[in-house]
Structure formats: structure tokens, C-alpha cells
């Protein structure tokens, strides 16, 4: 026989669905509020009815005490069942629906009472306060049961106290009024509870639609997963509210931007200061995969608006990739230079071999000397005029590549550039892009020539590159600086129309300009003016915070 399965336990608790939980909690709150309001109303109502009953009893007692027949009867007649005091007191009692009206003398003896047999007997409660001239209101228990009482002194015509008047109203009648008020009160409370339940149902339905009927535990789990995901991914995430203030930063965003929790609740301008990164986060610069620099880091930023009027920006670190790209570019430049030198070297070796075979030894020696001297003269000419090693190396390499393509690359005699550049990498990017474009423009033309001039005016650097190519039509001289615009066919591995736009961007970033015009002998002439590009002569050159980043952006976009 198989064992009998254990009985299932009945689990009691909140329902799992959020709609049911919210509805149940709100109905419970509404019911609790209704009960509390009812209790708070009944408690003062009971006291209020007691006060009303005692004031009514006191008013009847005062009216009775003011009747001259009452005081005259106490002074002139004995306490009897058919005496004038009893008849007058009973008349007033019936007219006011009081439970009793007792008139007594200073010896506490009754002159009137609803029960005639009690007349002539002393009262059961102490009337001293009333006989002393005080008015008394109380809830007390006497021979007729619990009642609301009012006691006043009884004065004669000379305003002397000759007794007291005590009036009682049955307390059960007060309680009956209170109980009679409860059904109506509960009816109002039930109506309020019904309205509260309906409002709770409507609110719960709205919450159900907005939360997709998830349970509270599901929402809590989603929040925990979101926190873990945001702080675990290797991509910076910055969330902004509809006012443009930062409301969320994950760990990677703090690292990439160099900020902490103090940035939460502030705008990007307040947290980061002016710059392209701030413009991207604030939405003033739009687009996808926007390159920006923060400190020494090159970042790729994307910004997506949210339904509540805010936005979420993501940041990726491209610094290491940029470094690898720069190394690859350097390697490519070296390979191009070596290939050109190899080609030129092969031609020279063939010439030397021919001279030797023809036994023209003197000519061979002279030819070797000229070749070595020309190469040495070119390098020395560049380094003498341009003292910055990066720019000098760039132009020497470009001269070799130009020679292979049949283009003469000259450095102007007016070129003078000291080794005091603030951002040498940025200027290398500018010169490299302009020289490459000039070489492309003159390739395949007769007497192709490109001339580079670098001169200084105080701390300002003026760069001029002109060529003997076909030139640029006047109506296109501004278009060529637009990103993505090019007259050449895009390569398979990238896109064109970046180099010149990058040149202008780097120039404007340093407060300078980049323009193009017609050269004196034909062709195009590019001019770049970079103010404050040199350090003071007595100061050591120091790269600014974003110099390496600007070069990284330049080289990335140039590729």
C-alpha cells in the first residue's frame, strides 16, 4: 500500500496579485477609518447628550424655583400629598416630562415627589451645595434610579434660602437617544466605506495597469536586479529627470566621469562644468555614438529620451581602443614609409648596379654620395625648422610617402616652430589631415607639389598648406568642412568627409579658425590659426587635461 499523502496545510495570507493586495489594504484602511470616525463621533456625542440632559434638568429646576407658590408653600404649609407645593411641582413635571421634581426645606425634608409616600421624608442625596446657594449639575443614582440632575436653591420674597429644588431626567432616556442615533451614524459610515471601497477599486485598477499586475515581491526583485545590472555592467549609465537633473549614476559612470553621489540632484552643467560631455548629456548635442573627452578618457555617448520627459545616457570607454588605434596608425605610417623607401632603394640599387657593370666607378661613388646627402639634407632641413619632434617626424615620413607618389613635399623657408607646443598631438592631427588631403588632390598631376608652412606670431601658431591641384570651387569651400561631405568615393572599411571637419573642430576648440582659399599659383590653400598654442618661453610645456583626449578623438574620426 502506498502511504497516505499528508494533508495540505491551508495557507492564509495576502493574495499574490498586486491588484488584490492594494484593494484589500485600501478597503481595510477605509473600514478602519470608518470605525475610528464612528468611535470618535460616539464618544463626544455621549458626553454631549449628558451635558444637554443636565442643563435641561437645571433649567427646569430654575423655572420651578422661580414660582412664588413653591417658596410660599414651603414656608406656610406642611409637606402633604395634596399640598400646594406637590400640586405645582407635579404640574411642572408633567409639562416638562421630567422624571421627578423634588422640593425640600433646609432640613432635607421633601415637600414634593412623584411617589406621594416619599413626601415628608428626607432626601437620599446630599443637597448641601444647593442649600448653600450653588447650582449643581450631575449624573447620580437616587431612589428613582440613575438620572441627570439639576439642583438650585429656593429663595423667598426677601431672597433668603428657604429650601432647594432638585429635578431629574431619566438617564435611560438619554441612553435611548444615543442608541437611536447609532443606526443613522452607521448608515453614514457604511456609505463612506462603500465610497472608499469604490475609490480603492479604481485606484487598484490603475495600479494594476501601470505595474502590469506584478506582485510586490516581483517589483522588489526587479528593482534588486536593476541595481545589480546597473552597477555590474561595464558601461556608464546616467539617468536625468524632466528638469535635466541627474537622478541616477552607476559605478562605471562615476568612474568615467570622475564624479560621485554629490552629482545626484544637480544638472550636468553644475556637476561637470562646461564642455562637450556636458552638452551631450544635457541633449544640446544630438546624434548617435558621439565622441567626447572627459579628462584623459575618450568616451562614446548615446542619449535616449524617456517617456516622463527625462533621458538616459550611456557612456562607453574608448580610451584603450584609441591607444591601439594610434599604435596601428603609427605602424601603418611606418610600413608606408618603409615601402616607399624600399621602392626608391630598389631603383637606386639598380642604378648603382648599372654604373658598376659599366665600370663607371667614379660616377657610382658620386651617385651614392648624392643619395645619402639628399636624404640627410631633407631630414636636417625639417628638424632645423621644426623643433617639435612629433611634427618633424610626421613631415619626414610624409615626404617619403609623397616622393613615392611623385609629389614634391616642401617645407617653406619661413617655417619656424619652437618646441613649446601646448597640444602637439592635436597639431599633428591637423597637419597630417591637411597634408594627406593635399597629396590626394595633386596625385596624378604634372609638377605636383605640396608646401607646408608653420610660423608663430607670439604664442599663436599659423599653419598654411597649399598645393598645385585643381583647387576648390568657391561655393564648396564651406561644405568641405561639413562632417560626411566628400567628393571622393568612400572606402570599404570606413567613411570619408571626417578629416577636414575634424581640423575645423580642433581649431575652434582652441579658439582658432580653419579656412580655405585659392593659392597664388593655382590650387587650394588651407590656413589654420591656433591662438595660445605655445607656452611662455620660460615655462615648461605641459599638456592640458584633455590634450591627449583631443588627439584621440581626432585620430579616431580621421580613421
UniProtKB/TrEMBL annotation:
It is an enzyme of class 2 (transferase). Residues 535-559 are annotated as: Disordered. GO terms for molecular function: protein histidine kinase activity. Residues 535-553 have a biased composition (Low complexity). Its main location: membrane. It is found in: Cell membrane. The chain crosses the membrane at residues 20-45, 185-203. Its EC number is 2.7.13.3. Residues 423-534 form the Histidine kinase domain. It catalyses: ATP + protein L-histidine = ADP + protein N-phospho-L-histidine. Keywords: ATP-binding, Cell membrane, Kinase, Membrane, Nucleotide-binding, Phosphoprotein, Transferase, Transmembrane, Transmembrane helix, Two-component regulatory system. PROSITE patterns: HIS_KIN. It is a multi-pass membrane protein. InterPro entries: HATPase_C_sf (IPR036890), HATPase_dom (IPR003594), His_kinase_dom (IPR005467), PAS-like_dom_sf (IPR035965), PAS_fold (IPR013767), sCache_3 (IPR033463), Sensor-like_sf (IPR029151), Sig_transdc_His_kin-like_C (IPR004358). Signal peptide: none annotated. PANTHER family: SENSOR HISTIDINE KINASE TRCS, SENSOR HISTIDINE KINASE YKOH. This is histidine kinase. It comes from Streptomyces cyanogenus. The gene is dcuS4.
